[in-house]
Amino acid sequence: MIPLHRPSAQPGTRAAPAARPWFLVSRLAWRLSAVTLVGVALGASAVAWRTLATISSVDDAALQSQARLVAEQLSTGPDGRPVLHLPAELEATFGRTDERAAFLVFDRAGHVLLASDPTTVPSVLAALDPPPWTGLFRAPPSPDYPNGMVGALIATRHWRVAVVQAHELNEGLARSLVRDFMFSTLWLLLPIGGATVLIGVLTIRHGLRSLRDASAAAAQVGRGQTGVRLPSAALPGEILPVVGAVNAALDRLEQALDAQRRFVADAAHALRTPLAVLTARIDELGDQREADDLRGDADRMARLVGQMLAMARLEELPLDVTAPVDLRAVAVAAVSEIAPLAISRGVELGLLDGPVVAPINGNAAALGIALANLLDNAIRHAPRGTAVEVAIEAPATIRVLDRGPGVPEAERSRIFARFHRAPGTRPGGAGLGLAIVAGIAAAHGGDAWVEAHAGGGAMFVMRLQPAAPRA
Amino acid sequence: MRLLIVEDEPALGDLLRRALERAGFAPDLAATLGEAREYLALGGHAAIILDLGLTDGNGLDLLREARRAGNSTPVLILTARDAPEDRITGLDTGADDYVVKPFHMGELVSRVRALLRRPDAALGVDLALGNVALHTATREVVVAGAPVALTPRETSLLEMLLRRHGRVVPREAIEQGLYALDNPTTANAVEVLVYRLRRRLLACGADLALHTVRGVGYLLAEA
Predict the structure, then answer these.
(1) How far is CA A15 from the centre of its chain?
(2) Do residue B144 and residue B104 come from a single domain?
(3) A308 and chain B in contact, CB less than 8 A
(4) pTM: predicted TM-score of the whole model, two decimal places
(5) How far apart are CA A392 and CA B135, in angstroms?
(6) How many domains does chain A have?
(7) Which residues of A touch B85 (CB under 8 A)?
């Protein structure tokens, strides 16, 4: 196959593949899930921490009030040492071993004067070294208090009183509270988080559904169908600016195309009206020899103008190639149109029998122009008495065969160029007919070339894109 | 027969008027849509030759108005625009024929004549080409002044070809026009009929040629 002078505008040719697209729905789902999980975790920790803090502050308050109760019961003995008269309920508190609470009374110098449980003394002394005036403290473990102690120390006028308690008490409580929390609060938080993710995803999906309609409309925008606009009804406000901008771009595109269309139409009018006057004046001259020569010149000029306008339309305006086209019907129409020329030149024109060819997506009028150009070209080069034949082949190929001089190998790639005229070509051609053929074939995603016809002559081939099989 | 020419290029309008006068018509010439409307209001035109790109508007608007007003005068559009979509728009709007500028005066005159003898325009018309004439009402065929006896099918085929002389008549059109649906044609019935008509015409000295366009149809032209 011979490369054409014109890069064919293949539909569907894209730039290098972009990075993988991301999707709002999955991104939102992931992020919402992550945020929900982190939120639940943080919330749980915060509540657990608050619970523990509350428990310990309750404990601290209790220890301090116990210490105050103990202090209130102290009086100074005759020897200057403290004497304790514990009420029964307090005595019970310090007597019970399971709660493991103890009190200690110090003098100002930090010497232990009284202790309800002497085993606590060393570790409490260790915790209170150097002795603070008041406050809460933790004491290291002792044989009876394997988890250590918490205590409150208060000062009275003469003494200081400390109440200590085994540490494991509030840890057990905290653990059970946290467990409670996990089973009640967390199982409530998790479904709420799940529902949040679900609602987010559904909202986005629903909001994007109208965008799918818009993109379906956008897919309609194509060659020759610039009137399509994206629907903006039911679109979320975030998307509307994009749709509006696209529609505005389409407006500008359509205006530019309209201007171009008007220009080609105006040019056609401006060029053809004087030609029509010229032709009519020549026709008035009658059948003189000079009139015939002039008629030939005017016809040639008219052909050139017609081809230049066709070329201009093809170059500047998008060709709608989306309608189903029956290639055999196109061939019948083109052969019928050109038959008078063939008869006047004594060339036998025919359409060969062939297979039934499935319709392709294309533009019947443009393909008719292309085939008529090929036939015109073949008839003008065919010797009187020879045949010019059209053959349609599956899936979507049109061949035009003649018995003319053929196209020399060196010329084959060049004859499709605009205004190219092979050396020795008879006058009459403008050198645009085959360029128009190549342009129309390219607009259909196909190509056109010429080969030698076995047995002499040329074979012009237009191979088009067969319609994609329906899924 | 009065004709209306709507053409804003003075030279072309003048040439058209002279040519149609020579052909035996009485043409009125309007250079603008306004003038054309005035002429149309007077009525009585057998056909209208309409340019599309006029100084004061598009000829298609005039055509649309006329058709909406129930005016069925045959209209031949004469235009510089030959894009396929222009052609289709013109015919869809109600034009009967479409000629792209530049054109040969002889062709235009014969197209105007063809418009005036459309089947619904008259009951019996004489179709003539070269030395062959066919009267559609009486089915008489005359070649070089002498009546010729053709079978009804041969006469009908000749009529179809004469009505579209110089243009290809598709084979399918002949099959559908000459053979009833309940009378299935043999594969080569049309070929046989064309062969017989061609021989008859040759035998009685007709100066017509019945060309075969293989795979497509037939074309009748002066030899």
Answers:
(1) 16
(2) no
(3) no
(4) 0.59
(5) 40
(6) 3
(7) 365
